[in-house]
Amino acid sequence: MRLLLPPSETKRDGGAGDSLELDRLSFPVLTPQRVESTAAVVGLSGEPAAMMRALKLGPRQAHEVDRNRSLRESATMPALDRYTGVLFDALDAPTLDEDARAFAAEHVVVHSALFGLVGAMDEIPAYRLSHDSRVPGLRLRQHWRAAIVALLESGADAGVVLDLRSEGYAELGPAPARGESAFVRVVAVDASGRSRALNHFNKRAKGLFTRALLTSRPQIASIDELIEWAHDAGFTLSFAPQHDAGLRELELVA
């Protein structure tokens, strides 16, 4: 099973790990793209005003330029601990026990705009780059899409692929449309039984759902087994109405 998570724009400072080593991240096939994206971001950080425009930052976020300038030398920490925000606060990775973290290392991938797909326990620095950032010479969709699509399609041995990313990050490298892959959409159900997509609670529900998977560590071989596990774990998860032959969708009720 592979869980694809979005990153967060907010990140913890510091870390106990050594400085960034791109070739030690998971999925080394992405190293050429990582070298290019890192060089582009570090280079632009030498022009603070231009970087703030590219990243859509306000005056109170000027420290993000410093983060990017020093990302090659900064201390690192596991990706799952680095990210903060609604999803990752609900997941609460620092409180996971050793077995849950080992399960995350094997099954959880975070999609970074800067590094592409990284393993949950890959050591990364704090940085700022989003899927819609406009860095000169770095068109993120063009930069990542083909490589990430190829990587995900080559991972048939991953079994169930559960795409919990936002649509913006999924566009940088869609998951393969095959039998045991699905995109998860968080919804609320009204009194008439109709569902509607959520925003803030979408992220929290995904964090809680991921944490439950990491703490229970089920052996899941199919989407049907995942739905059965979710029911037993107290979640409402079901197939969404299918409108085309693309990637199947699941609805998670918040």
TrEMBL record:
Record-linked InterPro entries: YaaA (IPR005583)
One Gene Ontology term from the biological process aspect of the record: response to hydroperoxide
Source organism superkingdom: Bacteria
Annotated transmembrane regions: none
GO terms for cellular component: cytosol
Pfam families: H2O2_YaaD
Protein name: Peroxide stress protein YaaA
